[in-house]
Amino acid sequence: MVEKKTGVPTSEQRLIFGGKQLENSKKLGDYPLLKHNATVFLILRLPGGADRISLEERHTPMDPGLQYSVDDPCMICFTHPNDEDQIYTARRLPLVMPCPGGHSVMHPHCFMQYCQNEIFDNKKEAICCPQCQTEWSLDIIKKYGVATEEEIEIFADGMSVNVIHNDPDVTECPGCLSYCERRSKKDIRMHCRICAKQGKNCEFCWHCKLNWKTRGTKECGNTNCKAVDILAQIKAAPLKRVVGVLCPSIRLCPYCGTAIQHAHSCKHMMCSTCKCEFCFICLRPARDGSWQCGRYNTKCVPAPRQEKVPTRKIIN
């Protein structure tokens, strides 16, 4: 029944009861504690978008309209066409990316890796040249990255989601998961029309996403809701120089929303709550143990003051 409704096959479904996964070979009657009114949690295994992007080496396309680099190395893998230990053919030459300065050089597969990192790690709404910020369209990504239609669709969906999530005035209704946009930045008591039509509780707090409990419009009545105070701290936090770059002295962890104040030393942080590692200046997370914005004392572009408390799941 679940497969017919969701399209997810039985092999990709998990049933959890009492903190344990139920075995496929057993029946419900084999679990004495599993009574008629017991709660069983269903988990669906879903494919992640980024995992469907192949980062295997791709042949450089042969096109008279493209420019190839025979002197400068790829800026992602740093492989130089003249390296003696590399056997270079025309199919392995890096491409000069289309921007006014022509200063970005990448292999097709390295370009795809760069796009993936920008969209799914750095939550960028568009792919731009890392040097001059010239925006590259999906057509350019397809051509220079030798991307498939499915890969372009994954990138397009990822950028669309980032546009929504990066908008401080857009959030998800906790009831129906529809995206909502508030009319005024002062509104925190939200009324979901879709939930109302379905006869559900349709009022929730903009910050903590819990049901609204009071009659007023300023405080939701949930004891754990501290978002208003946190955002006030972020707004009032003075600027501070971190490795020579001016940025707010208080940041929210980009994953769990914990407030972190910079005390001293380098720009790289580890959140004590979720163990997420990120840069205090640009808010980019570490990827596979590497920093995307350079060394601990390298200057990078500061992210603006945060206007919405991140609500992503805590990393294990």
Order of helices and strands: HEEEEEHEEHHEEEHEHEEEEEE
Number of strands: 17
Which whole number gives the mean pLDDT? Answer: 80
The secondary structure category is: alpha+beta
Separation of termini?
Answer: 32 Å
* Overall geometry: globular
CATH architecture of the largest domain: 2-Layer Sandwich
Tally of distinct domains: 4
Q: What is the count of helical runs?
A: 6
CATH class of the largest domain: Alpha Beta
Strand content: 15-25%
Reading side by side through the largest sheet, how are the strands ordered? Answer: 2-1-3
Q: What is the percent of helical residues?
A: 10-25%
Provide the gyration radius in Å.
Answer: 24 Å
Show unreliable segments.
none
The description of the largest β-sheet is: 3 strands, antiparallel
Provide the CATH topology of the largest domain: Herpes Virus-1
Domain RING-type: 70-304
Pfam family, one: ubiquitin
Pathway: Protein modification; protein ubiquitination
Domain Ubiquitin-like: 1-48
Tell me what you see in this structure.
- With 316 residues, the protein is α+β, with helices and mostly antiparallel strands.
- It folds into 4 domains: 45 residues, Ubiquitin-like (UB roll) (Roll), CATH 3.10.20.90; 115 residues, 2-Layer Sandwich (Herpes Virus-1), CATH 3.30.40; 44 residues, no CATH class; 91 residues, no CATH class.
- It contains 6 helices and 17 strands.
- It has a 3-stranded antiparallel β-sheet, with no helix packed on it. A two-stranded antiparallel ribbon has the order 4-5.
- Strand 12 and strand 13 form a beta hairpin.
- Helix 2 packs parallel to helix 4.
- The longest helix has 18 residues.
- The radius of gyration is 24 Å and the shape is globular.
- The two termini are 32 Å apart.
